Predict the 3D structure of the following.
Amino acid sequence: MDRRTFLRSSFAAGSAALLPSHGLAASSATLQDRVPGSIAESEIEGARFPDGFLWGMASAAYQVEGAWNVDGKGESNWDRFAHTVGKVKGGATADVACDQYHLYKDDIAILKRLNQKSYRFSTSWSRVQPNGTGPVNQKGIDHYSRLVDTLMEAGIRPFCTIYHWDLPQALEDRGGWPNRDLASYYADFAGILAKHLGDRITTWAPFNMPWTFTYYGYGVGVFPPCKSDFNQFLKAAHTVNLAQGEAFRAIKAAAAKATVGSAYGMAPAYPKTDSEADRAATARYHAMNNLYFLNPAMHGEYPKAFVGATPYEAMGFKAGDEKIMKVPLDWVGFHYYTRRVVSNASGSAGVGGHFGTETEGEGGGAARDPLTQMHVEMPTEGPLTEAGLEIWPRGIYDLVTQISREFNHPIIEISENGCCYLDGPDASGRVPDARRIAFHREILAELARAIADGAKVRAYHAWSLVDNFEWADGFTQRYGLTYVDFRDQRRIVKDSGLWYGRVAGSNRLT
Ligand code: FCB
């Protein structure tokens, strides 16, 4: 029996008692007939998306570009990490990855063929400024300029994420994100991009998943630069909030047509029990993991993420920082992958240490950290993907409607959603990844329901255009709607890609 089958059968036997504690109503029909958390076929068939909805796909420079030392590119923190023995599964590196640096025209042709309207890509800072500060490497700018031109010729909106985790190593050597000076270096970089590309790019997101790279890199040490110090995380996160504000102004100053939003990682959180303590811990999770970079932008202040007072001193907060951070975003972008169940861990010391999957797992055990004092679980009530993440389609409805309510109905873009399945080509050369189609169908049905209920969602980006280098998991996970044979860079659009192309062409799921 595989893990999914096991989970389904053990759910029927043991989880009826678990459901009410998550605050999720379940009818007896759901329990008996359906996979937990799944969406009825009639809802999927009835789902509609508005005219002009932006169907898209996403990627990140380090995960797809390769060409790690080509045309003057400097070393990044992820180059250094992947070149260090024992850091990435299988000893993989992204030196070549999907070679999108050279093959971008082929990849954009796939986007066009699949009726895509938006491509979310990121820029490599060390390709544009090899040392993070100082002179511009014109060849780096030229690459992104060609990429943007090719997208626009194909009728696809370029959505630029300025920073998706790869920092010039030279800046890491100067202390990395805990060094407050990085805020203005980063704003200079953002301004350079806006100056050279802002005549064509109008959609900018300064940071991908800022909580993840600051916490994993400086708080618990599973991402570069592998530091495990909660105070370093607090400082890094504060620099990033300052950087977000300064970059917003630099982009707007350089590019009149620019709109600036975000690409935050978010997860709807549910209290483990109905106790006041668990509900308060869940609110802290929401503040720390979902709002820690959104609230400073929208309101110039940190959300209440801590058990006690906000630790301004440890963060390196200075008088006036609230004004630097406050840059009400033009639209709010966030990813949805899965949900969390949260309980109070006040009194239990220590930092949680188990990382099931590098980009999503936040581990259990004791309190995750000393100041937020919560215990965070990745539930297994619904089926799991091959990265071990629970499939919980209604989570996107809950998250989108929550953010809509809390931020006065902003324009929303889903900047990522996707699933890992390892399906490869069959004997006829087709990639029949039916599970990925099922995954996106159900989540999209729930997204359509949120739109029907008033949420102003204008875009959805599937992660990812192509299978790629999945950070510390190397090439052991495949999220692409296009299969990549990493031996020869051959691409095969998977069944899910063909299906998603039809969705993009019809605004419906059947
Ligand atoms: C997200 C990251 C993206 C990729 C997917 C699977 O958290 O933004 O780079 O790793 O997960």
